[in-house]
UniProtKB/TrEMBL annotation, chain A:
The keyword Manganese does not apply. It comes from the Bacteria. This is ABC transporter ATP-binding protein. Keywords: ATP-binding, Nucleotide-binding. GO terms for molecular function: ATP binding; ATP hydrolysis activity. SMART domains: AAA. InterPro entries: AAA+_ATPase, ABC_transporter-like_ATP-bd, ABC_transporter-like_CS, P-loop_NTPase. Residues 12-244, 330-559 form the ABC transporter domain. It comes from Croceicoccus mobilis. PANTHER family: ABC TRANSPORTER G FAMILY MEMBER 20 ISOFORM X1 (PTHR43038:SF3), ATP-BINDING CASSETTE, SUB-FAMILY H, MEMBER 1 (PTHR43038).
TrEMBL record, chain B:
This is Membrane protein. It comes from the Bacteria. The lineage of its organism: Bacteria, Pseudomonadati, Pseudomonadota, Alphaproteobacteria, Sphingomonadales. It is found in: Cell membrane. One of its GO terms (cellular component) is plasma membrane. Residues 133-373 form the ABC transmembrane type-2 domain. It comes from Croceicoccus mobilis.
Length: 582, 375
């Protein structure tokens, strides 16, 4: 690999780069060096707030570095903009222009010769499969289609440097895979696009594994650079899977994580996956079977960050024990929501017992948010019924809402209020008064170690602390039911582990959890999953059951949750097309 | 980034902006529906004329002359008259705002008049509403003068005061406020389009993330600004023409000047109006804040401080000083004179000069704040 790098040209080179923003606790970038070579995908990987966007903007000439050298296409950044394709996070599309008009605009801006317009547009529209939607307004495209149009606009005049800022964010796994394949196609064909240098930024660590070279950023610092296989290789024989144990898997995970020779652990269906300090750490112990597991990029990342958190949740230890009522904690019976002619959710039914996690999975716009909102009492079902902690949503919506804690990774905190003010507000909002409220706020402040930051504005907190604060606010009133809306997308793996460590602890205390996600790792934590696609439940079961089903359906060997998800959606599309054809 | 402005990119950006304008229903609403609404509002609903003002007449004298004078007030089309024997009940009515003024015809009015003395009539007005008080007084005096003239004519003698004052209201002889309100409304409409509408458009690009994508192309910032100015300039002129047609053909406002004078002064006014809107938009980068700032610094001053509704010469000195900072102050009088008097170039040309200076100032500010950078 390193051998042929000498034959490639660098289209961009950065060394010792630093960038500070006023009022920020830490520099956005400090001493970052990187090289983008032609003909390959360079991954810029890291959680939200790592500095990826800042680095890309500096390369695109949109921001100035505070220190260090930046060379783009052999000159200063911002000079040869016609030769740079840039796709910002929100794709940079004009939503009130049609697909074709967007392409036309970018073609003119980048001075694509007029005589080449028709041919180029035809090629790009075919390539992105948007030919049918030429006349459609960009605003009326789905997330995945917008992303493809964004790519087409960046490619309208074949650039020498293609900068893609989190093209996969907010887009379902299928669209993400398609986009990846498209970029691979561009580099693979022998034409001039093969001579492009591509910088692909992502918060999804599984995408990192597919890049030719990876730069791993965390809080502005470069943690790793080079072939992703090298990072994965560093943990090679220390990743194991535990199976065949007796107690509940969450208890096993907690016990394992509390050991000093276990660096990290997650739940994968019925089994527990661990990263060990030493490959022989579990030798000779009984009560479970140990098999080697495939190491992932994320394992290497966690190790570089110093390992994941320990297993015992301080939150769970101080949480009240939830006494299960007679019925299930959450129940949905034939929930249906129609908006005019459009059915957003059709006949969704499930029930969640106390002490378990239930996942609603599906691509964007599939209907999972609608279902979620009906159960929160934010939307009135057109048909069907639901109950939370035994309170019927139609007759006692207020009681139902009081019994649940709600957390979304985005939007749920008031950025202009301090940590203390946010907690006080949510204590009041959940009906806690006087000394109860004070005690609850003190308790979560203590558990989540927020004491030093009580006066800080929530909006300026580092992402990890925002995450903690959001969870702290949701559990102030010790609810028996928790609703989580994409709780950990974009956060770094250590913060994510910490979050799920708390959730796992709460579930052991009897709390019922409903989570919506299109993030596959979160799905692995679920006891049961229902897959929603085109407003319908297309599959359901435990993660292991779903994987087994998908393995059979698509003839896959040991599929990941993402493979499973994609296989099931493709199968659903295929059967729908058949029935439409018939 | 290339140093020169590229025609192709500029046309592409203008085409894009035009498409957005045509597709956005709000633009049509502000550019075409709003002018019509405003014109009808100022043309019909808002009326500064004093037809039917309520006044009281304290008829303390019972002579034929006094009765006749009271009758003259009752027959006047300007007044609704409440009759009383003394001032007292009328005073209460004035306090409770039922009437705007009192005409007192005193006890010895008939006797004195019969002796040939000048008639003694007292006119009391409500000083808390100076505008109304003023025209109530002048109309009340007018009625008295007319009555005296008629009396004299009846007796076969003509009343010949030592100096005869003959009033003429030039350019708006019937003194209809509609005549100057409608041209003024055109200034309001052009401010709405020039400042309010454009204050949203750069902020919108920032909010939607398209600004970032555009800045990553070879686009020149001057091209960007020009692409915003040209379509909105044309849109505002189209709207102005629509307003003029309505003014002339629906409201009967004369257009005594030429269409060229009208276009020249309007185009000049659009420079500061557009410049201000774009500056607000570029500086705030937020549609909500931009619209508030545009209302406060663009729309309200045009409404209140341009001489459109309130005469500048009757404002306190320090407010008069502020009006010199309001571009519309130079536009409204020129517009009114083009409609009501004609192309008075001696008035229009200096005003055009001042407006262009304001415009240049705003554009300079715009270029300062629209940096090609996200820092």
């Amino acid at each position: 690999m390193t051998g042929d790098a000498h034959h490639r040209d660098a289209v961009a080179r950065v060394s010792g780069l630093s960038k500070n923003f006023d009022g920020a606790e830490k520099p956005a970038l400090s001493d970052v060096s990187l090289e983008i070579l032609t003909g390959r995908v360079t991954g810029l990987v890291g959680p939200d707030g790592a500095g990826k966007t800042t680095l890309i903007r500096i390369l695109a000439g949109l921001m100035k570095a505070d220190g260090g050298e930046v060379e783009v296409l052999g000159g200063k950044p911002g000079r040869d903009l016609a030769d740079i394709g840039y796709m910002p996070q929100r794709f940079g599309l004009y939503e009130d222009l049609s697909v074709e008009q967007n392409l036309q605009l970018y073609a003119e801006m980048r001075a694509l010769p007029r005589e080449d317009h028709d041919e180029t547009f035809a090629r790009l529209l075919k390539f992105t499969d948007l030919d049918r939607f030429r006349e459609r307004l960009a605003g009326n495209l789905s997330g995945g289609m917008k992303q493809k149009l964004g790519l087409a606009c960046a490619l309208v005049k074949t650039p020498r440097l293609l900068l893609l800022d989190e093209p996969g964010v907010g887009v379902d796994p299928i669209s993400r895979r398609e986009l990846w394949a498209m970029v691979q196609d561009l580099l693979g064909d022998g034409s001039e696009t093969g001579q492009m240098g591509v910088l692909w930024s992502t918060a999804y660590l599984d995408e990192a594994e597919k890049c030719d070279t990876v730069y791993l950023l965390s809080e502005g610092e470069l943690l790793f650079e080079g072939d992703p296989a090298r990072l994965t290789g560093s943990v090679d024989d220390r990743v194991v899977r535990l199976t065949g144990f007796e107690p509940r898997r969450r208890q096993v995970l907690t016990r394992m994580l509390d050991r000093s020779d276990v660096l990290d652990g997650t739940i994968q269906g019925r089994s527990v996956r661990l990263l060990l300090q030493d490959k022989d750490a579990l030798k000779g112990e009984s009560g479970f079977d140990v098999t080697p597991a495939t190491p992932r990029f994320e394992d290497g990342f966690i190790e570089r960050l110093g390992g994941g958190p320990k297993g015992t949740s301080a939150l769970a230890e101080r949480y009240r024990r939830i006494e299960p009522g007679s019925g299930p904690a959450i129940e949905a019976q034939g929930l249906t929501k129609r908006f005019g002619d459009f059915t957003a959710a059709h006949d969704v039914s499930f029930s969640v017992p106390y002490g378990s996690i239930f996942g609603l999975l599906g691509p964007n716009g599939a209907g999972k948010s609608t279902t979620f909102k009906m159960l929160c009492g934010l939307l009135t079902p057109t048909d069907g019924s639901g109950a939370v902690a035994g309170h019927d949503l139609r007759t006692s919506g207020g009681e139902a809402r009081a019994a649940l804690g709600y957390m979304a990774q985005k939007f749920s905190l008031y950025g202009e209020l301090s940590v203390q003010q946010n907690l006080n507000f949510f204590a009041g909002a959940y009906g806690l008064k006087g000394s109860d409220a004070r005690a609850a706020v003190e308790r979560v402040t203590d558990i989540f170690e927020l004491g030093d930051r009580l006066r800080t504005d929530a909006g300026t907190l580092p992402l990890g602390f925002k995450q903690r604060l959001a969870l702290a606010a949701a559990v102030l009133h010790e609810p028996p039911v928790l609703f989580l809306d994409e709780p950990t997308s974009g956060v770094d793996p250590v913060t994510r582990r910490e979050f799920w460590m708390h959730i796992n602890g709460l579930v052991e205390k009897g709390v019922a959890v409903l989570v919506t996600t299109h993030f596959m790792e979160e799905a692995e934590y679920c006891d049961e999953i229902t897959l929603i696609y085109r407003s319908e439940q297309i599959a359901g079961g435990t993660p292991d059951e779903l994987k087994a089903e998908a393995a059979q359906m698509a003839d896959l060997d040991d599929p990941t949750m993402e493979d499973t998800f994609i296989a099931m959606i493709e199968a659903s599309d295929a059967s729908r097309q058949e029935s439409e054809a018939a | 980034m290339s140093a020169a402005i590229d025609k192709r990119r500029l046309f592409a950006m203008i085409a894009k902006e035009t498409r957005q304008i045509l597709r956005d229903p709000a633009t049509g609403l502000i550019a075409f529906f709003l002018p019509i609404l405003l014109l009808f509002l100022f043309g019909y609903a808002l009326n500064l004329d004093s037809t039917h003002t309520s006044i009281g007449i304290a008829l303390e004298d019972e002579s034929a002359a006094a009765q006749s004078l009271a009758g003259a007030y009752q027959n006047s089309r300007y007044f609704d008259v409440h009759m009383a024997r003394t001032v007292q009940p009328l005073r209460d009515m004035m306090i409770s705002d039922e009437i705007r003024g009192i005409v007192v015809i005193p006890q010895d009015f008939g006797k004195g008049y019969a002796r040939g003395n000048p008639p003694r009539v007292q006119i009391i007005t409500d000083g808390t509403m100076p505008n109304t008080a003023n025209f109530t007084r002048s109309y009340a005096e007018g009625v008295l003068q007319t009555w005296l003239a008629n009396e004299a004519a009846d007796r076969g003698t003509s009343l010949e005061p030592p100096i005869s004052l003959s009033l003429r209201f030039w350019y708006n002889p019937s003194l209809q406020s509609r005549m100057f309100l409608v041209p003024g409304a055109i200034a309001i409409v052009m401010t709405m389009i020039g400042t309010l509408l454009t204050s949203l458009i750069i902020a919108r690009e920032w909010e939607r993330g398209t600004m970032e994508a555009m800045m990553a192309t070879p686009m020149h910032m001057a091209e960007f600004l020009a692409s915003k100015i040209v379509p909105y300039f044309l849109l505002a002129l189209v709207s102005m023409v629509l307003c003029t047609l309505l003014a002339v053909f629906v409201f009967g406002v004369p257009l005594r000047g030429s269409i060229w004078g009208l276009l020249a002064i309007s185009a000049a006014y659009l420079m500061p109006a557009l410049g201000q809107g774009l500056f607000i938009s570029a500086a705030t980068k937020n549609q909500f804040v931009a619209s508030q700032v545009a209302l406060l610094t663009g729309f309200l001053p045009t409404f209140l401080l341009s001489g459109f509704l309130f005469e500048i010469s009757s404002m306190p000195t320090w407010i008069q000083a502020i009006t010199y900072m309001v571009p519309a102050r130079y536009f409204v009088p020129s517009l009114q004179s083009v409609f009501l008097a004609g192309d008075i170039w001696a008035l229009i040309i200096p005003n055009i000069g001042i407006l262009l200076l304001f415009g240049a100032g705003f554009f300079a500010l715009c270029i300062r704040v629209t940096k090609r950078s996200l820092d």
